[in-house]
Amino acid sequence: MIRKMVVGEKPYPKSSKTHPQYLQTSTKDFGTEKQRLLKALDKWKGMEGEKIDHALFGVLTQEEKGWSAYKHLNHHLTQFGV
Predict the structure, then answer these.
(1) R_g of the chain, CA atoms, integer Å
(2) Quick check: 58 pLDDT over 80?
(3) 75-80 contacts: CB < 8 A, separation 24 or more?
(4) Collapsed DSSP state (helix, strand, coil) of residue 58
(5) What are phi and psi of 44, to 5 degrees?
(6) Among 82, 54, 74, 80, which Cα is nearest to 11's?
(7) pTM given for the model
(8) Nearest to residue 69, comparing CAs of 57, 81, 80?
(9) I want to staple 12 with a disulfide (CB 3.0 to 4.6 A). Which of 53, 61, 67, 75 is the partner?
(10) Nearest Cα to 5, choosing from 66, 79, 71, 82?
(11) Rounded distance, CA 37 to CA 51, Å?
(12) CA 38 to the chain's CA centroid
């Protein structure tokens, strides 16, 4: 069920709850966090062609990996009006 939500075409629902381990409770510096994101995207891009054996979702194809990354990032950028 979760895999289908992550790799499926349907957007993430608005106002869905964040798992408690991912809740941000401290102030973050936008510039620093932006650089962390860009570095992570470069690393992700450098993994082209590699399959990921995810503990929860199983093996993800290149297409599933790319789509899930896009979908997750787009969800948060939309969430914060970026």
Answers:
(1) 14
(2) yes
(3) 75/11, 75/12, 79/14
(4) strand
(5) -60, -45
(6) 74
(7) 0.69
(8) 57
(9) 75
(10) 71
(11) 21
(12) 13
